[in-house]
Write a structure and sequence with these properties.
Length: 141
């Protein structure tokens, strides 16, 4: 490997005496444990923006880009929200079913009119043990 002798000597001197490192390298070394502490204290879900805000709240002045760079170096990432799942993708070209009752849901006698509606889940309605995929809500007229 071809390296200039002066570059090699400078690198070797920094290895022997860490005080010769740049001020940025020294500051990075001091900030890395703080960034990791804030990230772990918040269940490892905070991204660079929230870690930066929390550090400034704790009176540790640091730039956001510095937090981003150091988190990248440390391999720390915030949690990402998953993509919302669409259960039904409507076919716009398909014909709509006919409205055979013409939106008149009143019947003169029992069993004259049967109408139903199904739903995948209703916000605020929970099934057994707090799960949202418990009993469904059906509308009957």
């Amino acid at each position: 490997m071809r390296v200039a002798p002066s570059a090699y000597r400078r690198h070797a001197a920094r290895q022997r005496n860490p005080d010769l490192r740049s001020s940025r390298a020294k500051r990075d070394e001091a900030l890395e444990p703080e960034i990791r502490r804030v990230w772990e204290a918040n269940l490892q879900v905070y991204g660079a923006d929230k870690v930066w805000k929390q550090m400034n709240r704790e009176s540790i002045p640091v730039a956001r880009c510095t937090v981003e760079r150091l988190m990248r170096r440390l391999g720390l990432q915030g949690a990402r929200r998953g993509k919302t799942v669409r259960t039904t993708v409507p076919d716009r070209a398909a014909p709509c079913p006919l409205d055979l009752v013409n939106r008149q849901f009143n019947a003169d006698r029992p069993n004259q009119l049967w109408v139903s509606d199904f739903t995948y889940g209703v916000p605020g309605v929970q099934g057994e043990h707090g799960s949202s995929n418990g009993p469904r809500v059906y509308l009957e007229y």
